[in-house]
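Protocol step 4 of 6: structure prediction from sequence.
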Amino acid sequence: MTEAVVLLFITGALAVTAAARHWDLPAPLLLVVVGLGVSLIPGMPHIELSPEILLGVILPPLLFSAATGSSYQDFRSSLHAIVRLGVGLVIVTALAVAWVATLLLPDLPFAAALVLGAVVAPPDAVSAAAVGRRLGLPRRVMTLLGGESLINDATSLTLYKVALAGVATGAWVWTEGIGVFTLAVVIGVGVGLVMGIGMHAARLRLADPLLTSVAGLVLPFAAYWIAEELSGSGVLAVVAAGLYLGHTAPTAGYETRLVEQPLWDSLDLLLEAVTFALIGLQLTIVVQTVVTSDEGLATAIWVSLASLVVAMAVRPLYIFATTWLDRVHLRGSRRSRADELDWRESLVVSAAGMRGVVTLAAAAAIPAVLGGTEFPGRATIQLAAFTVAIGTLLLQGVTLPWVIRRLGIGGEDEAASDAAEEARVRRLMADAQADAVARAAKEWAPVIGEEKAEAARAAMSAAIVGRAQAAARLLSPETESGTEAELEAELEGPAEPGPVRANPTGGRSSNAPRGDRPQELRRINALRAEMNKAQRQVLVDERDAGRLNEAVMRRILRELDIEAEALAGSWVNRI
């Protein structure tokens, strides 16, 4: 595979992604379909990435980006369901697929069949999340799908390692498998938290957003490789680090957040395009491998179709059979009845079982020779894995939007709740701004005089009241006028402003002599920075107290970051 072929492949994948975004189509599905079509063209070059690159290079940044963008608050509230699906469903699916495979291939050792089960068990939420965002699924459904995808890869890959060890030794010991899994979890989470804490400490002390952003790019690879080297779960290490850094991001500098977000969005788009295009391109190659093997194409096709049916059928059966487990208390979770899924939402989650990069990489990583002997049924297992990946992407990916629309699931009530929540927190932010103005007025009084300092305070407080009242009316039209009056009273209402003129704070500034104007503007800019900081602190406090959803917090925080970036420019630009 030459450099020109790689460049052409990446360019083509991005072109298909651009078309999907332009026509509002699910990019993963279109990439797979186009990849399948291209693979059928005679003479097409063989494009293949080694499993080490897929698992060690492509997977870590995708997982890290998803983890940092996830809400730790929502993750904890849905921890019951996430563990139920991310661990329990993966194990049950793997065992069910392995059992069916041994029925169709009696000579296939159970450990080898379990390799197949582990490979096809973990769904990839990328395509499901894309559909869900476009159709406005409720946040708790999106949280469950995203949280499941963060930990099911770790469960699957650990089970995969245990099954490979069973094939190599010819023995299967459940206690050994449980021990390997426990060790992988403990080491993986431990490595991830240590690296996440260290990275957060670094970004609090480094004043260079480019440097911290580059360090953030390196972190998921380092966490994955170190954890794997220590016999831990690299996936869980990346997820733990990402969740921690995403949760603590509001306390870091605004420059880092503004630099990192577009960087990760761009990298995600590139890696997802390459991955799903590669899935489509691989099927013909795998079929050719089966044809040249001694296992027989007909038998391999039957095993593949049976694996696809079992993988798709087990998910809804398991989800509805184990819903009651969500009511069992699990230490460390914050949950309420509102976090539980109803039957319609459970049906949507059942239909969102598309497979992705882990299935592709794990199937490609199955060794041809293990323990000195040829791996039993390797070609058939690989064909079954690719059939499940492509089949679920096309069948469930195409029907999922129809299922969502048919069930009438939407986030309208959630949007109204978010708006009311935002209106409330903006009122608290107005209080914090008023306190900052009052403190500044006391500091200004000895310099510009008591009367002018009080006039400036009153004018700026009036501007804060106006903005908060306007936001309340726009976000929550049913806001009572009494609430607005209370806000104005809390900020000690607009007093007589005296001889002042408008200034960049939205209020007024004193009639200072020309020679004092630069110093005055510096004071105003410093006050605006202090007001910005006070508002960010309100957001973090409300989020940590469980009174503000993280999605709402991040939306407002971005506004504050953009404002802070403007304030960091030359004060001359603020005249």
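Step 5 (inspection) to follow. The first strand starts at residue 369 and ends at 370.
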